[in-house]
Amino acid sequence: MLSHQSEKMSLMLTAKNHSIPLSDGNRIPIIGLGTYGDPRTTPKGTARECVKLAIDVGYRQFDGALVYFNEHEVGQAIREKITDGTVRREDIFYCGKLWSTFHPPELVRPALERTLKTLQLDYVDLYIIELPMAFKPGDKFYPKDKNGKYIYHETDLCATWEALEACKDAGLTKSLGVSNFNQRQLELILNKSGLKHRPVSNQVECHPYFTQPKLLEFCRQNDIVVVGYSPLGTSRDASWVNLKCPPLLEDEVLVSIGKKYNKSPAQVALRFNIQRGVVVIPKSFNPQRITKNFQIFDFSLTDDEMKLMEGLNKNIRFVELLMWSDHPEYPFHDDY
Ligand code: NAP
To answer: 286 CB under 6 A from ligand 1?
Structure first.
């Protein structure tokens, strides 16, 4: 079900003016550049050049993380575009993520400070818990035992959240959110006694093959903006992507709707999400595709086209995270 409010709002968005409200009074641009590229195959400097180009093109949101290993480049690009006068800091929205080895409350602020130091910025706009699953704290981001099994850590999501609230109060982040949380995990935070700051967003996989109707409805009812990751159907990298799901951008419906508007399947997929109030963070490190992916404000899909695209839902994830499916907080067991 589309909410008429978010539908109406999305029809008013423009390339210059495309942010939507968050429940804490801040705003988030409805499109951002995803910045995860495989560090083994992405040449150094790529993220920096791409973020600078994206700012010139009109992107104002950047989705990053400590474990993308290029946060220094993203920060450098943002600072360079501030220095050359293209944007001011307050025009840019940067989302950083708390990695799973930093869930114990005393590690939360140092992790965010590490990100700020890497970015060389004074604050991030949004800081989110990347996964509801905690791993053993230490030097290794992906700790494993001698048998190659991941080492988990007991999670108290509410305690982690309280430490995040203190970071917002200290001015290190403007807003707080989560990622890969299911409804139960969101409710855990929302129903926490003494909750000071509500999560403003939940970043989850969302695209025409995985439309997330139930979670979207729950989030709408609770004033939580859904940020859709892998909005183009991912990079189809076999090392972490479920390739049983066919390539989204080859879908005939997307292709034929695209022909009608002289748009690519990627632009149609992105428009579908923003038109239902879902923020999109397509990743591209290719100049043409970065530019094209932003050109989604000069056409709109009809109600029938939106329904047709909702009907493409296969309820299959590209990002299953099955390697952690035995974690007590693995979020994707339930059909939520
Ligand atoms: P995506 O944005 O759906 O797809 C990226 C892939 O599509 C790349 O291979 C890109 O290649 C290609 N591409 C980009 N534009 C295209 C176009 N117009 N036509 C054809 N192919 C195109 O997938 P994603 O990287 O998985 O997700 C986006 C962002 O979401 C990530 O970068 C990250 O910031 C975030 N994310 C978060 C989580 C989480 O757990 N919170 C998980 C996954 C992703 P080129 O670079 O060569 O253009």
So the answer is: yes
